[in-house]
Amino acid sequence: MAGAVLQPAPTAREKPDGGSRVRAWAPSLIAGVAFLLIWEGAVDVLELPSFVLPSPSEIVAASFRDPQTLAHDAATTLMEALGGYLLGTLIGLALAIVFLSFPIVERIVLPIYVTVNSVPMVAYGPLAIIWLGVGSSSKVLLITIAVSFTVLINALAGLRSYDPGAIQLLRSFGASDQVIMRKMRIPAALPFICSGLRVAVVHSMILAVVIEMLGARAGLGWAVYKSTQMMSFVDAWLAVATTVVVSLAVYLIVTWTTRRFVWW
Amino acid sequence: MPSTLRYLSSHVAPAGVIVAIVALWELAVDVLHVSPDKLPPPSAILHLIWTDRLIFADAISVTVFEAIVGLAFGIAFGVISGVAFANFRLLERIFLPYFVASQAVPIIAFGAIIIMWFGNGVASKAVIAFYLSFFPIAVNALAGMKSVGDGEIGLMRTFGASRWDILCKLQLPIALPAIFTAIRLGVGLALVGAIVGEWFGASRGLGVILLSAMFDYRVTQLWAAIVLTGLLGTALFGLVAFAQRRVAWWQTGS
Q: Could you report the per-residue pLDDT of B46-97, keeping only the tens digit for each?
């Protein structure tokens, strides 16, 4: 599945100073505020009932009704997503290193991994629920598998992206394999790994929410499912909006962290 | 012949591993007396796929149709916005951040709402498939268009080419391989969109089978649907890769 390898996003943007950063974001910020205002106004003017489309102010107001449950749902989903994300990242990186050191392991394990991942992970959702129940473990397991695959494929692509000439140069200066790995191949792989990490964090949130919709005790996906079943659509929108905010926040944090990491 | 050897080790060996795993699975279920409610043997799964082939064929046709309708809109919208962004810098600055942000939004959370808006039929699933697939296509179309050099555009302009000519004869052909690469990614995403969309309300499709099999604990049927989903995804991916080689034949590579 060559399609799974993502090209590193252009991270090499020169750091803008405060003023130009504001200017760079201004058009899209204005568009965003305009969008919310139009939404609010349209709901008002067209007198849309809240089951068709509640206004942003209604959704915000609903968040004050039961903030504890909302916070608990958000925390559950976030924990599942982050737990699977961390586990998956560790497993993906570990596998990449093992594969590189012992090609025979790669020849045996990689085909299995590719086969398992040729099925969209959501299709395993019902099976995970049957096997592991509606608790958090079914979500964490699927997220771990999905994330480890993304990270593994990106790490392998990255570790193999080095310039052979540079390695020979280092070797001619008497660098050992370990030094080459540390100084050359890992730095070369980092942009790939980081773009994998950025994609994977979004996937983790999506998977957590989707699998929660199949069955869960708590979580944002479960909240969406429950409130649509009970026809309380403002609550469904609130859960959706919270999901959006949490996902965006996590994505921005990971993007920001990986930018720090790979400044080149 | 070293190339034959390389082919053997890169294609036959992985297939061998998979065959071995499936054989081991079959044997383990048999020897350890695993209950088919927990893990059915591969032979039972294949048998079920064969006996229920009409049901599965119907489900696949529905799901594929939803995915392809969504993907078609995703391709159209992705390419158009890529072209627009490449030509109008202000549009890119306003909307590209939202395109990126849209990918951090789990559209699936909107599933129930989308069904309410677009009904129980093909449209609601196609909308989800569209949403999941347009982004990589837009980004790659934009990157492909931008990879055209100023010198090449200038040259065409000196020969009196209009903006439209430059777009159709220079920028789009150069962007085509990148667009196809994104479509390969998008076809799998569209399939996911169609399947998950079916969870929220549908009467036919692979997603329906997955969900009803879970509720009724029909594990063998669940496995059959999983296997078919994987095969379907691989087949669609292969189809796009084949089309890529035919249409964008000048670009060799994966």
A: 999 999 999 999 999 999 999 999 999 999 999 999 888 888 888 888 788 7
Residue B47: what residue type?
H
The 10s digit of each residue's pLDDT in A103-143 is: 888 888 888 888 888 888 888 989 898 888 888 889 999 99
CA–CA dist A5, B11 (Å, integer): 19
* pTM recorded for the entire structure: 0.81
Q: What is the DSSP string of A50-113?
A: TTT---HHHHHHHHTTSHHHHHHHHHHHHHHHHHHHHHHHHHHHHHHHHHHH-HHHHHHHHHHH
Give CA–CA dist B203/B197, Å, rounded.
11
Output the CA torsion B198→B204→B210→B215 (10° steps): 100
Tokens of A75: 């925390």
Q: List CB contacts (< 8 A) between B254 and chain A.
A: 2
Please, what is the Cα angle at A180 between A179 and A184, to 5 degrees? 120
Quote the CA–CA distance of A117 and A109 in Å, as a whole number: 12
**Position of tokens 């379907």?**
B232
User: Among residues A179, A158, A157, which one has the least CA distance to residue A169?
Assistant: A179
Count CB-CB contacts under 10 A for residue A91: 17
Judging contacts by C-beta atoms under 8 Å, the chain A residues touching residue B105 are: 243-244, 247-248
Cβ(B200)–Cβ(B194) below 8 Å: no
Token reading at A153: 């494929």
Q: From B67, B101, B61, B106, select the one nearest B189 (Cα to Cα).
A: B67
Report d(CA A134, CA A141) in Å as an integer: 12
Tens digits of per-residue pLDDT, B91-123?
Answer: 888 788 778 777 767 777 777 788 888 888 889
Kindly state the tokens that stand for A180: 């080459």
Using CA atoms, how far apart are residues A191 and A10, in angstroms rounded to an integer?
9
- Residue contact A108–B17, C-beta within 8 A: yes
For B195, which of A32, A120, A224 is closest by C-beta distance? Answer: A120
For residue A205, give the nearest of A98, A77, A111, A89 by alpha carbon.
A77
Give the separation between CA B241 and CA B118, rounded to whole angstroms: 32
Burial profile B19-33: b = 16 or more Cβ within 10 angstroms, e = fewer: eeebeebeeebeeee
Query: B18 and A209: CB-CB below 8 Å?
Result: no
Is residue B185 within 8 angstroms of chain A, CB to CB?
A: yes
How far does the CA of residue A258 sit from the closest CA of chain B (Å)?
A: 16
